[in-house]
Amino acid sequence: MLDPTPNGLHSGEAPLLQTVGLTKRYGDFLANDCIDIDVWPKEIHALLGENGAGKSTLVKAIYGLIQPSAGEIRWQGAPIVLSGPSEARSRGIGMVFQHFSLFDNLTVAENVALGLDGKESFKDMSARLEQVSKTYGLPLDPRREVWQLSVGERQRIEIVRALMQDPKFLILDEPTAVLTPQEADQLFVVLERLKAEGRAILYISHKLEEVKRLCDTATILRGGKKIQTCNPRLETAASLARMMVGGEIKEVKSAPGRQTTIPRLVVNDLSLAPDEAHGVRLEHISFELKGGEILGIAGVAGNGQDELFAALSGERLSKDPGTVVIEGIAAGHLSITRRRKLGAAFVPEERLGHGTAPRMKLSENALLTGHAASGMVNHGFIDTAATLKTVDKATETFDVRKAKRDPEAASLSGGNLQKFIVGREILRNPAVLVVSQPTWGVDAGAAAVIRQALLDLATAGAAVLVTSQDLDELTEIADRIAVMFHGRLSEPLATRDATRERLGLLMGGSSLEPKEAAHAVGA
Amino acid sequence: MQLVLEKRAERSNTIALVSPLIAIGLTIVTMTILFAILGKNPLLALHAYFIAPLTDGYSLQEIAVKATPLVMIAIGLSLCYLANAWNIGAEGQFLIGAVAGSWIAVKTQGTDAGAWVLPAMLLVAAAAGAVYALIPAICKVKFGASEILTSLMLVYVADLLLDYLVRGPWRDPNGFNFPTTAEFDPVATVPLLIEGGRLHLGSIIALLVVAAAAILLGRTIKGFEIRVVGAAPRAARFGGFNANQLVILTFAVSGALAGLAGIIEVAGPVGHLQPGISPGYGFTAIIVAFLGRLNPLGILIAGLFLALTFIGGEQAQIAMKIPLDVTKVFQGILLFYVLACDSLILYRFKLVFPNRQVARGAG
């Protein structure tokens, strides 16, 4: 057994936070089974595990969102019972969630004010917000409304909101899932600084390289049980992965000798004005995507990826039909349903509320995109058996784990819901698949399944367009990578030429217009 | 100790079924207190409201007669509400339907027009109700005007139009100056189901409407479209469904059903057009729609229940001199509790004991 306190500095004092035999039972299901962890001040402690390993349950108990069924939480050595998150916050426990809880129509400052328990005036709070965001290098304009912000900027709000309470202990749930390497690097600087200030950080992640680089200690959970507490720097990514998964992770493999065929998705000089006040204008976007090929689009969030997805899917129409050509048919003016009938399929970034109706069953969510061209509708009547068949097939093919045959979409974990959504589209045998952030906040196992599915689809002859902020993902599966910056798309690079440095420069806009580069780095 | 609302992982189907019953229970408790304050014996009052009407055949028929327009209107409204389109003006669409259908009855009065009169009246009434409902719908889609306000305001326009017609051009010359049209001819009257009774063909039509709505919502892609547009607008757009089209469609259908209910009421139980043909059916139907969980079968049951309160209210007025307006108070309280109890479908109450730690520390 490895020494759980690797730097050996803690002898004689109590950990900042400790769980002792923490157990959470839901009916017969043990979400957390007797978990002991110790987190010390000045420590970044990783919590590693697959979806459903019990990471979320554990941190929810620590943050006071749920009451443990047995065991206890000790804070600075003394047992505590948290009545709720506000008590946790008042003791100095802060949390940044993976799914942001922000009101779109309120400003940054208003959102932060809503999350604070203090009684300071709005003006003072705004000033403090600007100061905290400046101090930690997390630039935010307090007056902007949240709906205008990118995912990365929204995360900044959550982090700043947590920091404004001056927490001694900060929980971060998959914080880099939405960030670019550069953004992640910036975040690590912030986290190192928080650590140096004497705070403790509980860091949930499944990006093993990042855990090895950042974290002092790692606790690995599997199936609700603690497997091991170790020093991640002394482990290899493979050994950590084995502990997480309880076996080897399948390598994503591209079939040898993949042939490209005819162009299946062509975009010709697509320009589109933004449809909201602070949206991004798409400017002169052109590319050609052949069957059998995967084109990756990299870029910092909020550079027009959402707008491009809407223009390709038909959620936004173009006046000129020739701007988007699907399977040789000019489709720029066609609705999303008509484009699906041409053989296109789409997977948006947001799983809940965009890709699925959260409070509807999976079978109904299969119908959501399947009604167009999958034989689920006869003369206006729904073929329920066919929709259920899609659910069963997606479940089987893509290993979707769920409590019952046809649950509500919102009840699935992120990774399982994403496998369902991707599966739902792939089962339609699309000629063209446009997918945005396919493994956004998804665990390693599910991500491997999804990436393999995209590769297999390309091997079968489909054209696949993947927009992602995860460069590792793009270099793993894409044949060519282009970068979006300020609504423009760079020339695609062959993946072997697309080094992190070259992509990073393009993501900063430097090879497009030197003047804008400086601006972009500041933004 | 603290009472908090906690979000459920998945919506509770049990509560979805039980919540209207909890609401009714709470309403009855509140009414009991209210009766006691009014100085009436609560038990006798509750008996008059809820039990007495169920004990004789005449009242039972009357309940079905009153439930008929409530159910028809509420079915239409439920489609709107499911699609996130807020039609509050069913009362106006009901009156316009009554007026438009009556126009044929008035024009053919005393002629030897044949059996086509009643079907024509029904059709014209439904069309007029639909067109009237399209005004707020189009204003919403084209100009972004709040359909809640515009549809509500049009109620008063319809009310005054009806008033003008029966006091002016359509007044029965032999009617002793009462503001009413002449009694409709037999060909312009909704036939009775039981000779000498009150139950009429309209109740059958209402049942057909319930069945059609159940099929529409449960089995068809259009019904799915209505549900998904209301439940998750962005996902609906991704699914290829057009929310604006559905605002137009659901308003038109609900207007048509309200208009149909209007002419059936006039050409059935009332027999002529006059002011006050509706004791607020269009508004009460909003309660019916929510009490019935926006579900066709639920609406049928809720419609019968609210009809019972109308009949019970009359009985309580006759037997115990309880003002008829208490019925409206009852209906208002019921809607309040229904909406309040609905939050339990997605949330649950939980007791939190922040002091437990102290207790444990001491032990």
TrEMBL record, chain A:
Protein name as catalogued: ABC transporter ATP-binding protein
InterPro entries: AAA+_ATPase, ABC_carbohydrate_import_ATPase, ABC_transporter-like_ATP-bd, ABC_transporter-like_CS, P-loop_NTPase
Domain ABC transporter, residue spans: 17-248, 265-511
Gene Ontology molecular function terms on file: ATP binding
Function: Involved in beta-(1-->2)glucan export. Transmembrane domains (TMD) form a pore in the inner membrane and the ATP-binding domain (NBD) is responsible for energy generation.
Domain of life: Bacteria
Organism: Bradyrhizobium campsiandrae
Database matches in SMART domains: AAA
UniProt cross-references to Pfam families, sorted A to Z: ABC_tran
The entry's keywords: ATP-binding, Nucleotide-binding
Family recorded in the similarity comment: Belongs to the ABC transporter superfamily.
From TrEMBL, chain B:
Transmembrane helix in keyword set: yes
Coiled-coil intervals: none
Record's keyword annotation contains Endoplasmic reticulum: no
Localization in the cell: Cell membrane
Classification via CDD domains: TM_PBP1_transp_TpRbsC_like
Keywords associated with the record: Cell membrane, Membrane, Transmembrane, Transmembrane helix
Transmembrane residue ranges: 12-38, 63-82, 94-110, 116-135, 147-166, 199-217, 246-268, 280-308, 329-349
Topology class, membrane: Multi-pass membrane protein
Origin superkingdom: Bacteria
PANTHER family attached to this UniProt entry: ABC TRANSPORTER, PERMEASE PROTEIN, GUANOSINE ABC TRANSPORTER PERMEASE PROTEIN NUPP
Protein name: ABC transporter permease
Annotated source species: Bradyrhizobium campsiandrae
